[in-house]
From TrEMBL:
<dbReference type="GO" id="GO:0003677">
    <property type="term" value="F:DNA binding"/>
</dbReference>
<keyword id="KW-0597">Phosphoprotein</keyword>
<dbReference type="Pfam" id="PF00486">
    <property type="entry name" value="Trans_reg_C"/>
</dbReference>
<dbReference type="InterPro" id="IPR036388">
    <property type="entry name" value="WH-like_DNA-bd_sf"/>
</dbReference>
<protein>
    <submittedName>
        <fullName>DNA-binding response regulator</fullName>
    </submittedName>
</protein>
<dbReference type="InterPro" id="IPR011006">
    <property type="entry name" value="CheY-like_superfamily"/>
</dbReference>
<dbReference type="InterPro" id="IPR016032">
    <property type="entry name" value="Sig_transdc_resp-reg_C-effctor"/>
</dbReference>
<dbReference type="InterPro" id="IPR001867">
    <property type="entry name" value="OmpR/PhoB-type_DNA-bd"/>
</dbReference>
<dbReference type="InterPro" id="IPR001789">
    <property type="entry name" value="Sig_transdc_resp-reg_receiver"/>
</dbReference>
<feature type="modified residue" description="4-aspartylphosphate">
    <location>
        <position position="59"/>
    </location>
</feature>
<feature type="DNA-binding region" description="OmpR/PhoB-type">
    <location>
        <begin position="128"/>
        <end position="229"/>
    </location>
</feature>
<feature type="domain" description="OmpR/PhoB-type">
    <location>
        <begin position="128"/>
        <end position="229"/>
    </location>
</feature>
<dbReference type="InterPro" id="IPR039420">
    <property type="entry name" value="WalR-like"/>
</dbReference>
<dbReference type="Pfam" id="PF00072">
    <property type="entry name" value="Response_reg"/>
</dbReference>
<keyword id="KW-0238">DNA-binding</keyword>
<feature type="domain" description="Response regulatory">
    <location>
        <begin position="10"/>
        <end position="123"/>
    </location>
</feature>
Length: 230
């Protein structure tokens, strides 16, 4: 029988339609997940900080606060997987949601079974990324704000630490400069996208000092950067 390590995963549902939230919650619980629910956008960030969910189902249009704004703030301090729920099917909204750091989106109306399937897929991907990012080559400890590369501690600035953590959360994924900028500065200051290049250069130098000949950061011309850990 297949084991289900995700069975105790905690899912936070941020949705202002009570019947829909209850239906999705029922399907999640029947699939072995724990679920909680908030209906007001202003309650979303405090709920994430308080309950530390393994995944957030985040509606785009909420009373009190917009889902995209919530997603942006969550990404300033957390890598929790986020699936956007939206009835607005315009392409710009989809792209904007993903650019802000959402992992996936589901358009309304949807089947609760589809939601469960997407949740399972995202959690499976998150576990695989976590295992890879905590490999012997690169270890990141968010609790102590420290990182090691091939056994050597890295002397990183707060911005460099957030940059490395963002790249390591999804090894192999290409991040645009704009996306990286959204995760670098908690005060959302206005800087140019070339600021990322400068931080990448400094981060590469410190990785090279820790493990000569090793450069896990790949530049994708005209797109951005990705992390490849062997």
């Amino acid at each position: 029988m297949e084991t289900t390590p995700q069975a105790l995963a905690r899912i936070l549902i941020v949705e202002d339609e009570p019947k829909l939230a209850a239906l999705v919650g029922d399907y999640l619980r029947s699939s072995g997940y724990e679920s909680s629910w908030v209906a007001d956008g202003r309650e979303a960030v405090p709920a994430v900080k308080a309950s530390q969910p393994d995944l957030v189902l985040l509606d785009l249009m909420l009373p009190g606060r917009d889902g995209l704004d919530i997603c942006r703030e969550l990404r300033s301090f957390s890598d929790v997987p986020i699936i956007m729920l939206t009835a607005r099917v315009e392409e710009i909204d989809r792209l904007l949601g993903l650019e802000l750091g959402a992992d996936d989106y589901i358009c309304k109306p949807f089947s609760p079974r589809e939601v469960v399937a997407r949740v399972k897929a995202i959690l499976r991907r998150a576990r695989a990324s976590g295992e890879q990012s905590s490999s012997i080559a690169l270890r990141i400890d968010e609790a102590t704000h420290s990182a090691m590369f091939h056994g050597t501690p890295l002397d990183l600035t707060p911005v460099e630490f957030r940059l490395l953590k963002t790249l390591a959360a999804n090894p192999g994924r290409v991040f645009s400069r704009d996306h990286l900028l959204d995760n670098l500065y908690l005060d959302h200051r206005v800087v140019t996208d070339r600021t990322v290049d400068s931080h990448i250069k400094n981060l590469r130098r410190k990785l090279e000092q820790a493990a000569p000949g090793q450069d896990p950061i790949r530049s994708i011309y005209g797109v951005g950067y990705k992390l490849e850990i062997e």
